[in-house]
Amino acid sequence: MKKISSSFRMGKVRLHGARLRGAMLCGALAIAAALAFAPAGGAQSGATPAAKGSFAIPRMPDGKPDFTGIYQWPTYMPGDQRGKGSASIFDRKYFAPLKPGGEPFLEPRTGDPRHDEPRDFCMPAGMVAGMLSANAMQFFQTKNYLTIVHEFQRMSRIIPLDGRPFRKDIEPTYYGDSVGHWEGDALVIVSTNFKRWVLDDYFYTDPKEYRMHSDALTTTERLEWKDKDTISYLLTIDDPKIFTKPWSQLFQIKAKPEWDKVGLFEYVCEENNRCPGGKCQGN
After folding, report:
1. Strand 186-192 vs strand 177-183: parallel, antiparallel, or unpaired?
2. Three-state secondary structure along the chain?
3. How large a percentage of the chain has pLDDT more than 70?
4. Buried b (16+ CB within 10 A) or exposed e, 31-56
5. At CB < 8 A and 24+ separation, what contacts does 244-249 make?
6. Nearest to 155 by CA among 172, 171, 132
7. Global pTM?
8. Looking at per-residue confidence, does 159 or 31 come out higher?
């Protein structure tokens, strides 16, 4: 058994990190719920307030768009399929066809908890499931880096923006190797060199469909300001071992400056905790 701070399970709905506004919140989360009614400000400190009917993109000193701020996780666009869990999932209608040999993308849950929900054993959520987990995110941007800290598992991604190539001779990882570049006012983040791992939380919607990406996965994230409260987040999946071609789904990321007063909640995962509720029962 493991011990998790800021993670609750209610039936089949996972409330990772409990940054679920409108869900059943308790204890310390009441503070965040109260803050939800505070007047909203800019997406990050120093942003120029947008006049009614217009929007000035917040920018860095070098003129690049500034994404610094605290945000909700990527959420659905109208009309897209929603899962039974709290995290966002991919809508099947956007999938490219599976290629011959790509069937391992969909596999049933086996009953082995380390396979069926490795996060219960403090294993990383990985990319892309970690980004879609239902928790707050905080972005810190400088000229050469964008750092994304996700409340769930305190996932941290440090993304170079200085034009460097991907790293060589490193082992595959759960979150891949990421580099960013600018296309006008859009920030494009490309990640590669992944371990084979869970793609999203769809298995809470259909236990027979456990989606696993391959080690050939490349993800492309395209972030672009749409208004003072919204970042467009276009996520492209390119997995040539699984799909016949790349495919994309559009999500939106909502700025939550009122969450900044409380900040990200602590997340602690302690594997093999033998004293649930403080009641130790032998070894």
Report:
1. antiparallel
2. CCEEECEEEECCEEEECCCCCCCCCCCCHHHHHHHCCCCCCCCCCCCCCCCCCCCCCCECCCCCECCCEEECCCECCCCCCCCCCCCCCCCHHHCCCECCCCHHHEECCCCCHHHHCHHHHCCCCCCCHHHHCCCCEEEEECCCEEEEEECHHHCEEEEECCCCCCCCCCCCECCCEEEEEEECCEEEEEEECECCEECCCHHHCCCCCEEEECCCCEEEEEEEEEECCEEEEEEEEECCCCECCCEEEEEEEEECHHHHHCCCCCCEEECCCCCHHHCCCCC
3. 77
4. ebeebeeeeeebbbeebeeeeeeeee
5. 244/96, 244/97, 244/98, 244/99, 245/96, 246/96, 247/94, 247/95, 247/96, 248/94, 249/80, 249/90, 249/91, 249/94
6. 132
7. 0.78
8. 159
Express as a percent the part of the chain with pLDDT over 90: 60
Q: What is the average pLDDT value for the chain, to the nearest integer?
A: 81
pLDDT of residue 103: 79
In sequence order, what are the beta bridge partners of 222? Answer: 188, 234
Q: How far apart, in whole angstroms, are the C-alpha atoms of residue 186 and residue 259? A: 25
Q: How far is CA 147 from CA 12, 111, 144, 242, in A?
A: 31, 36, 10, 30
User: How far is Cα 252 from Cα 208, in angstroms, rounded to an integer?
Assistant: 28
Distances (CA, A) of 122 to 1, 16, 185, 270, 277: 10, 13, 37, 7, 18
Q: For residue range 14-60, list pLDDT tens digits in order.
A: 344 444 433 333 333 333 333 333 333 333 333 333 333 578 999 99
